[in-house]
Amino acid sequence: MQTLQLADGRKIDRLGLGTWRMGEEAGQAEAEIAALRSGIEAGASLIDTAEMYANGQSERIVAQAIKPYKREDLFLVSKILPSNANEASLEKALDASLERLDTDYLDLYLLHWQSATPIQETIDLFEEMKAKGKIKGWGVSNFDLEPLKAVSQARNGDQCQTNQVLYHIGSRGVEVVLKDYMADQQMPLMAYCPLAGQDPSIRASILTHPIVEEMAADYHLKPAQLILAWLLQDDLTIAIPKSSSIQHTKENMAVQDVKLEETDLSCLNQTFPRPDSRQPLEIR
Ligand code: NAP
User: Fold this and answer.
1) Contact call for residues 47 and 77 (beta carbons, < 8 A)
2) Which residue from 6, 25, 45, 281 puts its CA 20 to 30 A from 73's CA?
3) What is the pTM of this model?
4) Is residue 243 within 6 Å of ligand 1 at its C-beta?
């Protein structure tokens, strides 16, 4: 598996496993666990979840999926709700996530989106949890340029390891300023909704686009694989596609070494252009 280096020196996989909507239906649990395991068997160690997903049930699905594997071979990411990112609630929320995940520590703990709590308070608590060994590192999610700069300027703000944001070939607003700032900070960008998310109409507009279908066929790839591969052509982006299907998970993990030709990259960039000016950060 290809990796990137975090600011704290640890390595992180460029392709991981998303889990939003897992745990919502008890009848799907077996398939979700099997899909996650197929991803791990295919080389994934990074698994992304959140206390919010299915009210903690997604973390429970992850716990079951990772049971046969060594904890130190995995890289678990969970996210705290902004309403819990304060002195009164953070440690309690973290302990509950750890219990649901059946683990002693998280590899990364992210603030799910901006909180009303002053960011310094949250960062101080993240650092305290690091000192206690409950998390190895922390980061943020859904932070646009200004709040991310505020993190960087805060005490211990240089310990922020990533910003997880919506990014796919059909939604390239982050490329206008945010991604360059993160590149300057040498902070990997963790792309959520890398396959255009779970909304069928948005997905269809990209995955059934004739240029995507034709180019994917030329590379002997599926359209979803092509757009995932497009996301990994830079040296900053990590993608965390979600799939509850073994077949899809295997397809997703198979794109890690796909290199797209320059001419094909420019064709895709013309078909799905990045915006000319700054856009509000898209949030799902
Ligand atoms: P996504 O990964 O872009 O797309 C998931 C959709 O793609 C599912 O409907 C899945 O269906 C389908 N799919 C997966 N692999 C496929 C393949 N090879 N071929 C065809 N279809 C495929 O969307 P997402 O789940 O919204 O985002 C990924 C992860 O990012 C989430 O699961 C979550 O962990 C994280 N996330 C974070 C935030 C945040 O605020 N920080 C927000 C949203 C998501 P099947 O299950 O049937 O394969």
Assistant:
1) yes
2) 25
3) 0.98
4) yes
